[in-house]
């Protein structure tokens, strides 16, 4: 994410906001210290973005998941005998 100082943000605000509307947020800094983040109004708020693992503990995968439907699949490929487990 691009960081700009206050003076640059004031002089190039239109250009920076055009970038924001195209999905390029930026940070405004004062003396090199970030003080504000400018993002699109449609951007998800902090904590609203989907995270991996959001269903942890709510879903169980069966032990035979990788063999589910094995007989049907083999039958579709014309294999009569299923391999020994």
TrEMBL record:
Entry similarity comment: Belongs to the phD/YefM antitoxin family.
Transmembrane segments: none
Pfam families, per database record: PhdYeFM_antitox
Domain of life: Bacteria
Protein name according to UniProt: Antitoxin
Function statement: Antitoxin component of a type II toxin-antitoxin (TA) system.
